[in-house]
What does this fold into?
Amino acid sequence: MPTPATLLALAIAGAAGAITPSGPVVPANLLRIEVRFDRPLPAVSPQAIVLRDGEGRPIEDALLDIALPDHDERTLVLLMQPGRIKHGVTPNLALGPALRQGERFSIEIRDARLAHMLTRSWRVGAAHERRLEPAAWQLTPPPARSTAALVLDLPAAINASAAALIAVADTKGRRVAGRPLLADGETSWRFVPSMPWKPGRYQVRIHPALEDPEGNRLCAAFEARRQSQMQCDDEAHIGFVIARP
It folds into this structure.
């Protein structure tokens, strides 16, 4: 437990944080930005958050006016205006998309409790409007008798907070203990087991709640008609074998 002196030092230093997506390019239909603080930071005001275009001008009506804290108040979820993303709806027709392919934009977060302003900039790439397809993920199995990481390389990023929504089960369906993490701009999922891998058959199991930063899910793309009313109930599986050495 931190000592009173340590807590005082942290309070004086101010909180720090990281903004994701962490890659340099985001799709034009980006829906979700996440901010992870190094300690709880409740009630960050939406007025403290600004999106700017490549010329430094604020992008008006780009973000929903609510910021969603996680249960531990360390993760803040910022949502783009969905109506400006979905084709054919009134805000998109009236204002156009907030992000345009080929341009740059940035986010700024100012709060008196932060050690300094948080900022990140991105280049806007092509929209990503397909549902998640784990069959297209590339799996690299680890060698038997080792604690090397199992690696899943994804064609596009998933949400930064989604690492725990992917798990590994053994041949009897028991969850393998270990530590998952995301790397390479959230396009690589890695799992380090608590114990050495045993030879045998395994399954990667993907929870139906998994999403990418564009709101695409296993059962439907964000752009799909009535996507918000769809209930994703079925998890996805990827089987693999760890061979005997």
In short: The longest strand covers residues 118-125. Residues 4-13 form the longest helix (10 residues). The two ends are 44 Å apart (CA to CA). The CA atoms of residues 137 and 155 lie 7 Å apart.
